[in-house]
C-alpha cells in the first residue's frame, strides 16, 4: 500500500472501497484501513447487493458484521428493479459503478478503491486479446482512472490472489466464494481455468501477462496524453452539449489519432463512462471523410459534417422543435451566438437542452 500511494497520491481524507465479501475485496478494505490509520485517512466500505442470487443479502449482511468488527463504516447499496435476461455480467458491473458513483457524489467522496489483483489483470489481457483489442485494451486494468469525476484506484494490481488469501488467514477472516466464479458460461472463468495450463505448457505466467499490460500501459499513457492535447487545443466546446473542429484538420491527422480524437469527443459529449467500440468509431471516421459524408449516431451523440466542420452533438430525448422566435430570444440573452453559424442540432441542444448558460 505504501508503495502504491507514494506513486499515486490522492486528494481528500476519505476513500470508499468496494467490498463484495470475496477474498480480494476483503483483503483490500482491511489493508487499506491499516494504511489509512497511519496516514490520517478514513476508509468507508461499500457493498453492492445486485439481488441476482438468493444468498446475496446474507453475504452483504456478513460483510456488514465484519466491517463493524474492524470498526469500518459500511453501507449496502442495492440494485433495484428488473434485471436483464442477457449480458447480465456487464449490466451488473455498470449498475455497480453507477450506484457507487452516485453514493460518492452525494457524500463528497472523491476516491474509490477496487480489489483487482494480478490475476484479474492477466485475465483481462487475454479477454481483450480474444476480442482483437489494440493498445488501449491490451494495456489492461489501469492502476488509476477517472469515472464521472470519481478517481478509481486499484492498489492490489501487483499482488497475487494467493497472497491476499494468506493475509486474510493471518487475520483469521473468512471470505465468501461467489459461485459464478465456477460458471463456465462466463469467458473470464474459462480463461481463469486455462491460466495454469498456459504457464506449465507454454511458460507464460500470470505475472508475465500482467507485466506485458504494464509495458503497453506506458504506450497508452503517452498516446492518451497526445490526444488530450489535440482535444484541448483544437476542439471547440459548446457548453456540455457539443464539440466541433475543422474537417480539414481532422483529415490531416494520422488515422489512429482520428479514431482516438473522435472517440474522446463522443465520450465527453455523450457523458459516457467508456469510449465506444473502435470498430464503430472507425466506420464513422470513414464516412465523415468520404466524398458524401453521412451523419451517424453513437454513444448518445449525433456526429455529422456542417460547413466544413466535424460536429458531435448530444442527442436530445425530446423531439420538440426549436422555433426561430425561441432561438432569437436565446441569442438576445446570449449575444456571443449572434453572428455564429451553428447547425440546427446544436442550437436545439443549447436551448431545449437547458445548457445554453454554460456555452463557451
Can you put this structure into words, describing what you see?
The protein folds into 2 domains: 2-212, 3-Layer(aba) Sandwich (Rossmann fold); 235-358, no CATH class. The chain is α/β, with parallel strands linked by helices. A hairpin with a 2-residue loop joins strand 5 and strand 6 (150-153). It has helices at residues 2-7, 23-38, 56-69, 88-107, 118-130, 135-138, 161-170, 187-202, 206-234, 247-252, 255-269, 278-288, 324-333, 344-352, and strands at residues 14-18, 42-49, 73-78, 111-113, 144-147, 150-153, 236-238, 242-246, 296-298, 301-306, 309-314. 50% of the residues lie in helices and 15% in strands. It has 14 helices and 11 strands. It is globular and about 70 Å long. It has a 6-stranded mixed beta sheet with strand order 3-2-1-4-6-5, sandwiched between helices.
Which characteristics define this entry?
single chain, 6-stranded mixed beta sheet, 360 residues, Rossmann fold, alpha/beta, globular
Give the low-pLDDT segments. Answer: 354-360
Do you know the CATH architecture of the largest domain?
3-Layer(aba) Sandwich
CATH class (first level) name of the largest domain? Alpha Beta
Number of domains: 2
Could you describe the largest sheet, including whether it forms a barrel?
6 strands, mixed
CATH superfamily membership of the largest domain, which one? HUPs
In angstroms, what is the radius of gyration?
23 Å
Q: Which overall shape is indicated by the principal axes computed on the Cα atoms?
A: globular
Structural class by sheet pairing and helices:
alpha/beta
Counted beta strands: 11
Average of the residue pLDDT scores: 91
Amino acid at each position: 500500500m505504501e508503495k502504491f500511494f507514494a506513486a499515486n497520491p490522492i486528494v481528500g481524507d476519505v476513500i470508499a472501497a468496494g467490498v463484495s465479501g470475496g477474498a480480494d475485496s476483503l483483503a483490500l478494505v482491511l489493508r487499506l484501513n491499516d494504511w489509512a490509520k497511519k496516514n490520517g485517512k478514513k476508509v468507508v466500505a461499500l457493498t453492492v447487493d445486485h439481488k441476482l442470487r438468493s444468498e446475496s443479502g446474507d453475504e452483504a449482511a456478513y460483510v456488514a458484521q465484519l466491517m463493524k468488527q474492524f470498526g469500518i463504516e459500511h453501507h449496502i447499496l442495492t440494485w433495484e428493479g428488473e434485471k436483464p435476461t442477457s449480458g447480465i455480467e456487464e449490466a451488473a458491473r455498470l449498475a455497480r459503478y453507477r450506484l457507487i458513483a452516485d453514493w460518492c457524489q452525494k457524500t463528497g467522496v472523491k476516491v474509490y478503491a477496487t480489489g483487482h489483483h494480478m490475476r484479474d489483470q492477466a485475465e483481462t489481457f487475454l479477454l481483450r486479446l480474444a476480442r482483437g483489442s489494440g493498445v488501449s485494451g491490451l494495456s489492461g486494468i489501469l492502476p488509476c482512472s477517472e469515472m464521472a469525476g470519481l478517481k478509481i484506484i486499484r492498489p492490489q494490481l501487483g499482488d497475487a490472489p494467493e497472497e491476499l488469501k494468506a493475509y486474510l488467514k493471518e487475520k483469521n477472516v473468512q471470505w465468501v466464494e461467489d459461485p459464478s466464479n465456477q460458471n463456465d458460461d462466463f469467458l473470464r472463468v474459462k480463461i481463469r481455468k486455462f491460466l495454469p495450463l498456459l504457464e506449465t505448457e507454454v511458460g507464460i505466467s500470470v505475472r508475465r501477462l500482467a507485466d506485458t499490460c504494464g509495458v503497453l500501459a506506458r504506450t497508452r499513457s503517452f498516446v492518451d496524453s497526445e490526444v488530450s492535447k489535440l482535444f484541448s487545443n483544437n476542439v471547440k466546446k459548446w457548453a456540455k452539449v457539443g464539440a466541433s473542429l475543422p474537417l480539414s484538420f481532422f483529415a490531416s491527422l494520422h488515422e489512429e489519432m482520428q479514431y482516438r480524437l473522435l472517440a474522446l469527443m463522443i465520450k465527453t459529449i455523450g457523458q459516457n463512462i467508456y469510449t465506444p467500440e473502435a470498430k464503430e468509431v472507425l466506420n464513422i471516421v470513414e464516412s465523415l471523410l468520404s466524398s458524401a459524408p453521412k451523419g451517424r449516431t453513437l454513444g448518445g451523440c449525433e456526429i455529422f459534417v456542417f460547413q466544413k466542420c466535424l460536429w458531435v452533438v448530444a442527442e436530445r430525448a425530446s423531439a420538440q422543435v426549436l422555433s426561430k422566435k425561441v432561438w432569437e430570444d436565446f441569442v438576445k440573452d446570449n449575444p456571443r451566438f449572434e453572428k455564429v453559424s451553428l447547425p440546427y442540432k446544436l442550437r436545439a441542444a443549447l436551448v431545449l437542452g437547458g445548457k445554453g448558460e454554460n456555452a463557451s
